[in-house]
Amino acid sequence: MTKRPSLRSLEAFHAVVTLGSVSAAAGQLFVTEPAISHLLRSLEKATGLALFGKKGRRLDLTPDGRLFFDETASAMSVLARLDMVAEAIRSAKHGHIRLVAIPVVADYLLPEILYNFSKAHPEIDVTVNVAEGHRALDILERGNADLAVAIIDNTRGHQSHAQLDSHAMVIGPLSRFKTSASDVSIATLHTEPFVALTPGSPFRYALDQHLARQGIVFTHTLEVETQSAIVKLVSMGFGISVVDAIAATAETHQISASNFHPPLRWTYHLLSPANVNLSTAAQVLSDFVTESWSKLQS
Question: What is the pTM of this model?
Answer without folding.
Answer: 0.71
